[in-house]
Amino acid sequence: MIRVVFFAQLREQLGTAKLDVSIERVKTLSELKQHLSLQNPSWESALANTKLLVAINHAYVKGNHALADGDEVAFFPPVTGG
Amino acid sequence: MIRVVFFAQLREQLGTAKLDVSIERVKTLSELKQHLSLQNPSWESALANTKLLVAINHAYVKGNHALADGDEVAFFPPVTGG
Amino acid sequence: MAFSIAVQIDDFDVGQEYSDLVANDVSAGAVVFFVGRVRDFNDGKNIASLSLEHYPGMTEKILQQILDEARRRWQLVSARIVHRIGDLQLGDQIVFVGTASAHREHAFQAAEFLMDFLKTSAPFWKKEKSRDGSFGWVESKDKDDKAAKRWE
Amino acid sequence: MAFSIAVQIDDFDVGQEYSDLVANDVSAGAVVFFVGRVRDFNDGKNIASLSLEHYPGMTEKILQQILDEARRRWQLVSARIVHRIGDLQLGDQIVFVGTASAHREHAFQAAEFLMDFLKTSAPFWKKEKSRDGSFGWVESKDKDDKAAKRWE
Question: How many CB pairs below 8 Å do chains C and D form together?
């Protein structure tokens, strides 16, 4: 299972804070995004935002990336703390 | 009268914190330094130190400078506060 | 407590944080700190309050990484990052960054580095409430990205 | 107290100085401070204590000039310089510089500027007592001159 989490504006736009996706269906980050957009067509534009940051297991990643069972994948907008 | 003040190492080297010089004798900073060295030959090398800073009436000056009655002239080594 | 981070709802006491930074260490000749507070204007909007969201777990990990990187780059005696989450009012303290070193330039540079990287990589998000009652997520700023890039 | 300087024998309270800097001003989103303290090593010598001499009158004038220049260069809400004189022990506080601004880069740069110019132009002199009982005047440092020159 892949745990997927969303934060801030993105969480509000999607109306979802987290969900689980079976690892059988998604082997990579790209496949995960495709899967989420297919399941929820209204999410497509929000997830296509090139400014979104992506972290796997609390570490930033860029580009595509393999996923493993138990991974936590986070999508969120640029950070604004401090 | 010109009030002359010395600080820190220089004060210790000269064994003097302040003294007064008649404005009749010294019209410029150069004349003041010459006068002090003539009066106290042992001061000559300390006063010739090119690293010494000079202030007239609490404002830094460089090079020669005219003096006026009532001026306070300060000689001191590079500052080390903070 | 020589090097530590905290993500907390509670306020922090700047005097206490300072004391902890220099506690019993007479090599800490230079101490720099930064405090970020909720200010009245941002991007032309009149701000009334803030809500700070974060990514639990990742936030702490990133702050620790930033702190470790600062220790590698500069000679630090101690350093600390405290960041608050939750609802904050005008004038409330948001973030504390403190550094202590034998050398003033190390303390200053490390503090700026910590703030620049915290701003661009720690997963916090601010939602502002304006005085007219409207809400809006704070936009990230290009100048923060530029500030972080100067350390690369 | 928005902009002020002090030259004093007495110690200062960092928490209080911080509070005074931001007092009632919600535009002060960024606060930076620096504290310099008597540290155990300087130029390879084991330091036991310090004696700080200054030029009364000129010191205050120069500190005020530095503060005024910082206000011209950066957008500051408040700023303060406190410098102690007299006999100080290991770990004692020597100098406090604090700046508050709506913008973090202004607060940081102004604080560094104030310290760099204080170091090279305010007429203070430190005499150190080493642990072996010997006394010596602190030498000025080339790196301080270089630090001040970057603002020209």
Answer: 99
Superfamily name with CATH number, domain D3-149: Molybdopterin biosynthesis MoaE subunit (3.90.1170.40)
Q: Do chains A and B have 3 or more beta-carbon pairs under 8 angstroms?
A: no
D123·B55 Cβ contact <8 A: yes
Taking the Cβ of residue C6 and every Cβ of chain A, the question of whether any pair is shorter than 8 Å is answered with no
Whether D34 and C31 lie within 8 Å, measured CB to CB: yes
Query: Domains of chain A (ranges plus CATH)?
Result: 2-76 (3.10.20.30)
This prediction's pTM: 0.95
- pLDDT reported for residue D1: 62
List chains adjacent to chain D, taking adjacency as at least 3 C-beta pairs closer than 8 Å: B, C
- Per the DSSP assignment, residues forming a β-bridge with D8 are D84
Residue D33 to residue C37, Cβ atoms within 8 A: no
Q: Produce one character per residue of A28-49: b if its CB has 16 or more CB atoms within 10 Å, e if not.
A: ebeebbebbbeeeeebeebbee
List all residues 6 or more positions away from A13 whose beta carbon is below 8 Å from its beta carbon: A43, A46
Q: Side chain identity at C117, as an amino acid letter?
A: F
Q: Select the residue of D29, D40, D105 nearest C37 (Cβ to Cβ).
A: D29
Tens digits of residue pLDDT in A55-70:
999 999 999 999 999 9
Predicted confidence (pLDDT) per residue in B22-56, tens digit: 999 999 999 999 999 999 999 999 999 999 999 99
